[in-house]
UniProtKB/TrEMBL annotation:
Protein family per UniProt: Belongs to the sigma-70 factor family. ECF subfamily.
Species this protein is from: Vandammella animalimorsus
Record carries keyword Transcription regulation: yes
Matching PANTHER family: RNA POLYMERASE ECF-TYPE SIGMA FACTO, RNA POLYMERASE SIGMA FACTOR HI_1459-RELATED
Molecular-function GO terms, alphabetical: DNA binding; sigma factor activity
RNA polymerase sigma-70 region domain sequence ranges: 27-97
Pfam families on file: Sigma70_r2, Sigma70_r4_2
Domain of life of the source: Bacteria
CDD domains: Sigma70_r4
Entry keyword set: DNA-binding, Sigma factor, Transcription, Transcription regulation
Cell cycle keyword on record: no
Protein name: RNA polymerase subunit sigma-24
Any GO BP annotation: DNA-templated transcription initiation
InterPro entries: RNA_pol_sigma-70-like, RNA_pol_sigma-70_dom, RNA_pol_sigma70_r2, RNA_pol_sigma70_r4_t2, RNA_pol_sigma_r2, RNA_pol_sigma_r3/r4-like, WH-like_DNA-bd_sf
Length: 216
């Protein structure tokens, strides 16, 4: 019996395109949670009622696009999450809730934001944030839960294009080059979205970020 769980995402997608439905089952179970989390956070609270709709449409597009996937072009995860991004953006446009134009953003200075990027990213993916383990103190658990809730509120305040760029890069760990290509935007445009998102998140996280930076 073939051990599908040991195959790479790319190998599974190629097998699925060749007619092996079990390969798709493995891909789906492997990425279902991450995809749902990304779509939920990209759409934001105002669109939470439509998360399941966008989630299902994303997987339908992945199914319909199975013959167009080329492993030489990108990792499957980058390709699939770019599809999720486009599906979410299509939904937002359909609902006439387009993100604010980036031209209206205040230019705050690149050096300041990039200097603080590691701390913001660590907070966003820190395992204590959503589900603090019992091995840490009660005080620390309270802090990380509060930090996680604040981070979600901060993400809600970002324009959706910046929010999606941040989530794809720092939580789904997609490369900038692949992301820019699959999102159909310029490399510098993507960098700009990430830079502005980090600036705004740092300002919004305030004391939580300061407390994180002071930890040994």
């Amino acid at each position: 019996m073939h051990a599908f769980h040991q195959d790479s995402d790319e190998a599974l997608m190629l097998a699925y395109a060749a007619g092996d439905s079990k390969s798709f089952d493995t891909l789906y179970s492997r990425h279902e949670a991450g995809m749902l989390r990304f779509i939920t956070r990209t759409l934001g609270k105002a669109q939470e009622a439509h998360v399941e709709e966008v989630f299902q449409e994303t997987w339908l597009r992945i199914i319909n696009g199975r013959n167009s996937f080329r492993p030489q072009g990108a990792q499957w995860r980058t390709w699939a999450f770019a599809i999720a991004h486009h599906t979410a953006m299509d939904h937002m446009r359909h609902m006439k809730r387009q993100p604010a134009a980036e031209a209206s953003l205040q230019v705050l200075g690149e050096a300041n934001s990039e200097a603080n990027a590691p701390e913001i990213c660590a907070l966003s993916i820190h395992p204590h944030t959503a589900h603090p383990p019992s091995s840490i103190s009660t005080e620390e658990q309270v802090f990380w839960r509060a930090a996680g809730q604040q981070l979600l509120r901060c993400l809600e305040e970002l324009p959706v294009e910046q929010r999606a760029a941040f989530l794809l890069k720092h939580e789904e760990d997609c490369s900038l080059q692949e992301l820019a290509a699959h999102l159909g935007i310029g490399f510098e445009t993507l960098r700009s979205r990430l830079r502005y998102s980090l600036q705004k998140l740092r300002q919004c996280m305030g004391s939580y970020l300061n407390a994180f930076q002071s930890q040994p």
